[in-house]
Amino acid sequence: MMARPYCVVVALLLLAVVSGFEEGASNPGFVARITRKGLEYARRFGVAILKKELSTIKLPDFSGSFKVGWIKSVSYDFYRLKIHRFELRNSDLRLRPRQGVTASLANNYVFVSGNWKVKKAFVTLDGTFDVSVDGISISVSLNLGKDQSGRPTASVARCRSSIGHISADISGRLSWILNLFHERIENNFKNILEQKICEMVRKSTTSHLEPYLRTLPVILMIDQVAGIDYSLVGAPQVTSQILDTPFKGEFFGRNWHSPAPFDAPPIRLPEKHDHMVYFAVSEYVFNTASRAYHQAGRMNFTIQNKHVPMDSPIRLHTSSFRTIVPRLARLYPNTELELEMSPESAPFLRFTPGNVTLMPVLDIQAFALLPTSSDRKPLFQLRVTTNISATISVSSDRIVGSVTTGSKLKLELKHSNVRFINVELMEAILNYYALHTIYPSLNAKLEEGFPLPLPRDTHLNSLELQVHENFLLLGANLDEAEH
Prior knowledge:
Elements lengths: L2 H11 L16 E5 L1 H18 L8 E7 L3 E16 L2 E7 L3 E21 L2 E24 L5 E11 L2 E8 L2 H5 L2 H33 L4 E3 L4 E4 L7 E2 L4 E5 L2 E4 L23 E6 H13 L5 E4 L23 H4 L4 E8 L5 E4 L2 E4 L2 E9 L6 E10 L2 E7 L3 E8 L4 E7 L6 H26 L1 E2 L8 E9 L2 E8 L5
Antiparallel strand pairs: 1-12, 1-14, 2-3, 3-5, 4-5, 5-6, 6-7, 6-8, 9-10, 10-13, 11-12, 14-26, 15-16, 16-19, 17-18, 18-21, 19-20, 20-23, 21-22, 22-24, 25-26
Helix pairs in contact: 1-2, 1-4
């Protein structure tokens, strides 16, 4: 029952990323950092959860014996212990450089009630008791790491507990006998509790926290086309000021999962501590996403006459292309045209300080749609280059974006079945289509965004987004209302 507060704290702590990794580790695609401010948030959140959980904690029974003159040894049992009041007076959560975290509670108080019984031969006496336990201190150190599947691990490195004072009030038939030995009973109770506290912590970690971490998802399906792998590529790195954890951050196709043919660039995080958490998203994340959607054919566009705005002076029709392709109207009179657009390769984003750019190279194949059949005749093929500027922002849990043209489309004729083509005029037409059809369609997809790998019900505020060399850096605070 004590596992859940530890799960919450460790889940919050594992929001993180690296500015330096162990030798041989892959560069991360996605990184997150928790600062001392974020650690303080985790402490408050963990204490709030612990207070809610204390009423459900099952305390262990304990027993002992004492001697009463000629009666000799008498055994006693205290059972059905229940916490009625708990005061969490002092708590702390600190980073342990190169190892993990230490959580501690100091000078705390608990009021417990329960039942007792005494046995001697065939005689059994019973009753109730109240116990006040003051000066409770607990310190637990966790080592953080990762397993072979890329999931985080946590293990108890050290646990210490102490109790300042115990006062027992025993009532019931012949309770005066037990009260004669209350100091001995209180000391026994104190020794047992000091042993049981760390035993319960270790058992809780082994039976609840560790299995919980082993079930954390490291794959998230984004849609019907692609998913993202955000397994850890290295163990969390800890200093006295920050906790950094590296995530793979690689997109893959739903029907295939081959490694990307390029590596993630290094991420050099600046020394920033103003926000609770920082997220660094490498251009590698966006470029593996581009690769996945390109291989799935989701970057291909087909433009038909019906897609052209009704008020456009130029239609995808041979009659509108007389001045662009003089022979076209004679070869295919009164015929609609169709344009197929596809990238030559997956377009990649490039991050430089303050800028996000994209330089796609497209193939455009033009077809004549024969009115008497379902066939279409290939007409010509163009190569298109352009420079696109991207704007990337973050909502509470998703990365979203939009694109605008950084330069006009530039056309190059690759092949023609209809001889002469006025490429300059075709350029003007395609720039119009790009502005009114292609960019709006692409922006609609980008507005849906991609989810940040955050724990459930975690929300961000005070967002600050910066573009650095090779990566975006998002600083944020966690929603204070959550705890």
